Amino acid sequence: MSISCRQLFWMITSMQVVMAILLTSSATVRISGQDAWISAMITVLLGIVTVFINVKLSLMYPEKTFIDFVRIMLGPWLGGGMVLLYLLYWFVVYVAILRQFTTFMIGTILPETPVSIIIMLMASVVLYSTLSGLSVIGRMSEFLGPVIIAGIFLPILLSFNNLNAERLLPVLKDHNGFTLLQGSLMGAPFLGDCFLVIMLISFVSKREFVMKHGIGGVLLAGAGFVVSIVATLMVFGPNVTQSFPYPLLMLVRSISVAGIIESLDAIVVAIWIMSIFLKLSIYLFAVSYGTAQWTGTGKWRTYAVVFTILGLPLALLPRNYIEVSVFFPIKVAVPYIFPIIMVGIPLLLWITALVQRNIRVQG
Amino acid sequence: MNKQAYDTGYTSDPQLVHLLHNNLHSELETNITNINRFFEHCSDLQTYRFKTGHDDHVVIMYFDGLADKELMDTQLIRPLKGIHTPAHHLEALEELTSAPYIRTSTYIQTIDALTSGKPVMFMDNLSEGRAFQLVQFEKRAIEEPQAESVVRGPREGFTEVLSVNLSLLRRRLRTPALKIVSVDVGVYSKVTVTIAYIEGIVKPGIVELIQKRLQSEVLDGVVESGMIEELIEDTNYSPFPQLQTTERPDVAVASMLEGRVVVLTENTPIALIAPTTMVSLMQSPEDYYQRFMTGTFIRWLRYLFFFIALLAPSSYVAILTFHQEMLPTTLLLRIAQSREEIPFPALLEALIMEVTFEALREAGIRLPKQVGSAVSIVGALVIGQAAIQAGLVSAPMVMVVAITGISSFMLPQYSASFALRILRFPIMILSGMFGLFGMMLCLLAIITHLCGLQSFGVPYMAPLGPLRLQELKDVLIRAPFNKMKKRPSYYSNSNRKRRSN
Q1: A262·B328 Cβ contact <8 A
Q2: What is the DSSP letter of B234?
Q3: What percent of chain B lies above the pLDDT cut of 90?
Q4: Are β-strands B271-274 and B458-459 bridged in parallel, bridged antiparallel, or unpaired?
Q5: By C-alpha distance, which of A46, A47, A224 is closest to A145?
């Protein structure tokens, strides 16, 4: 299994863009109002910082995955414990996305279908792609990524006649820097999950361009995020935007070109499913491959099946949209996961690795 | 009964098996008797006895209908009757006849020569047979390919005769770099399968790989290249063909020039091309013979109708069942009006019509020509006016099915359209149950499958996934030839320049 830098680029872009737009636009606008697009830009910066730190860290041990090099750096006990934390986190994210996605489906195009069936169908297709291996996921991202990006930008382009720049005014009057930063943190866990490169980097064939492509991937996904927030603000204004659970979907619904092209939302949602599907596949791959490395069995395909089966009932646990799409991101992802798991620990590890290397060089 | 005896494909008599690898006897009559023991109940085997001018006994054995009797008479029998020196001087024979021959020293070699149609000559005091290349059997003339017709392009198609097919290739590639390797496949049929390729362009290792797979003795008889296809493809568990088929020598040559390998099977006009990608299944030879703009346009049209063939009925079902808001109101009202009296849900309606259409299509191929017209008339009634008037099927559904059917004929590769025909049904069922979500899931599963599929080490989705931007020149468009300077990299890494300049 190996992937190219370009595949990594499209993997990062396509796994981030849709979830970030769907789940965090509304929350960002709620905090930063009409200045949400500035918050969104800060979010992109945070994403770039995340990918920078994590790529730097993983380039210290490019041949190894996170699972292996953490145990080399911190020893079997501390390192092993930390790995377990991450594996657990990845699994929780896999389950959470599965559930968030289902809520999204039910809220938009499949109002009457049972949750369990949607989860089961999606999980089985995701399992199929995960079992095919990372190179297949890479090829799919490269193939589907442009389609996903088109599925974000084309609807926005089509809504040009609804755009009204006045709705963005006044700029930077109602909100101070702290508020904007707070708003930007809403999207940070979503543009920050490019930190999965720590798991993927050992599969990349030409690593000299990983940094460039990693940052590029976050930038493209971030561009989609910023543009979508700008567009929804310009169409609905801040007060209406924050009342929608999925603002961009509302924008798609409002498109009308010459009275013929209307109600594109079902098609657009179908395209967005691709992104969520890729994200789920990558997370499932990360957690099952990581567990296989952690336990030393190497049978990651078995773990993929096991985690899928375990994930199904867990994904049914959250009772409603609020729990999974509001409570989890705001109460868990923003204060703990982003600063600690995505940035803090990798940063510490990177510094540790640098220090360790210096000691080795001097000694 | 000895199982071993059957497995040789030569005889069911265990006592005879050991004789197979024995050398021929110096006694003429012993050889004839032994060979006749193998060919018991083979009344088409002829034995012709005569004497040379020197009074040596000669026996020629041959199969009626395979050996060229006229040439045998003029090239072999008459000169031999005329010689007065002892004919077992081998040099004398070379002066006598220009017919090429090979010497057979064992029984198995002799039998192989006989069954492949060559007359074999035996003489007294000579412990070898001579098999003459005087084979002439009835064959079809070179005709225009039926399944792959073009408006512009050569009218020649492959025939059932391997040597004719090879000559068609050789005529188009006048270079010693055109190599032809042959392998005999099948315990009983011993059909010659030849692998043709251009040395220096071909993807390294692929010829050896095909040879190795051909030699795995799974088949006891090969009747058509479809069996060879199943023998050498990477996985049998896929609806998508992993080898391209062609009846056209120009297509075969063009693919060899790309670095691919052509597998020709005796007794069938269908040649296989390996490796194959999804994209190459969507290309028609005519794309390259027309102006490049025309080629590009037709190609886009084909991509569009590929998706229509795959998705038209399922999107109709999904939209009608789940996403009615996508349709403009007037259109929706029209459809609702025509569906008013239909007793079935859209999914069932679509399934009935699609299955009927597939059945008609299959029946149209299988039925004898004399009743063919009857079927087409009844078929037109069944999926046409009558079904609508009976109130079983709505008119829009008939249109959708008709468009789907026509679109699936647009694919130049017959075997690829089979994949579409099969996959249409699961997509239809899932979209009938879960709308566009089900359709997308099915598509994602298919894309996963396609991205994972390989044909002789070449990713099936190349050059789309893994993406090679340079090579999209022959995928998204058909670029002019002076812009396509390099061969596709996934077929061959070496010697990529198309011209030497």
Answers
A1: yes
A2: S
A3: 41
A4: unpaired
A5: A224
B466 → chain A, closest CA residue: A139
- pLDDT higher than threshold 60 for residue B5: no
Residues in chain A: 363
pLDDT at A215: 94
* pLDDT at residue B376, as a whole number: 77
Q: To the nearest 10°, the Cα dihedral for B213, B217, B218, B224?
A: 70
Distance CA B402, CA A25 (A): 44
Across B200-355, where does the E strand assignment appear? Answer: 244-246, 261-265, 271-274
CA–centroid distance for B142 within its chain? 17
Q: Which residues of B30-54 are buried (b: 16+ CB within 10 A; e: fewer)?
A: ebbebbeebbeeeeebeeeeeebee
Rounded Cα distance between B164 and B131, Å, is 21
- pLDDT number for residue B2: 44
Looking at chain A, which residue has its C-alpha nearest residue B437?
A270
pTM value is 0.91
Q: State whether residue B244 is helix, strand or coil.
A: strand
A257 in contact with B, Cβ within 8 Å:
no
- Tens of pLDDT, residue by residue over B174-213, are 999 999 999 988 888 889 999 999 998 898 889 999 999 9
In B456-475, the residues whose Cβ lies within 8 Å of chain A are: 459, 461, 464-467
Q: Which residues of A touch B435 (CB under 8 A)?
A: 109-110, 266
Name the residue of chain A whose CA is nearest to B325's CA: A263
| In contact, B94 and B65? CB cutoff 8 Å | no
As beta bridge partners, residue B194 has: B182, B264
Biggest CA–CA distance in chain B, Å, is 101
Residue B319's φ and ψ, nearest 5 degrees, are -65, -45
In terms of DSSP H, where are the helices of chain A? 5-32, 36-60, 66-108, 115-131, 134-158, 177-191, 197-200, 210-241, 247-253, 265-295, 300-315, 321, 345-362
Q: Which residues of A touch B445 (CB under 8 A)?
A: 125, 128-129
Per-residue pLDDT at B92: 64
Asked if A10 and A145 touch (Cβ cutoff 8 Å), the reply is: yes
Selected residues 95-154 of chain A with any CB under 8 Å from a CB in chain B: 105, 109-110, 113, 117-118, 121-122, 125, 128-129, 132-133, 136, 138-140, 142-144
Of residues A120 and A258, the one with the higher pLDDT is A120
Q: Looking at this predicted complex, what is its ipTM? A: 0.93
Going by the DSSP 8-state scheme, the letter that residue B131 receives in this structure is E
Select from B311, B448, B468 the residue whose CB has the most chain A CBs within 10 Å, as the one to mutate to test that interface: B448
CA distance A47 to A217: 10
Which tens digit of pLDDT belongs to each residue from A237-296?
A: 888 888 888 899 989 888 887 777 777 888 898 899 999 999 999 999 999 999 999 998
Query: What is the distance in angstroms between the Cα of B439 and the nearest Cα belonging to chain A?
Result: 8
Chain A residues near residue B439 by CB distance under 8 angstroms: 270
Residue A276 contacts B where some CB pair is shorter than 8 Å: no
How far is residue B220 from each of residues B21, B191, B211, B215, B272, measured CA to CA in Å? 20, 10, 17, 12, 20
Residues of B in contact with A118 (CB under 8 A): 434, 437
Q: Over 80: is that where the pLDDT of B453 sits?
A: yes
* pLDDT(A61) > 80: yes
Among all residues of chain A, which has the CA nearest to that of B464? A143
Interchain contact B437–A (C-beta under 8 A): yes
Report the distance separating Cα B144 and Cα B154, nearest Å: 8
Token pair for A151: 């599925």
Sort A73 into a burial class: Cβ within 10 Å, 0-12 / 13-18 / 19+: middle
Q: For B434, which of A121, A128, A277 is closest by C-beta distance?
A: A121
- A125: closest CA of chain B, how far (Å): 6
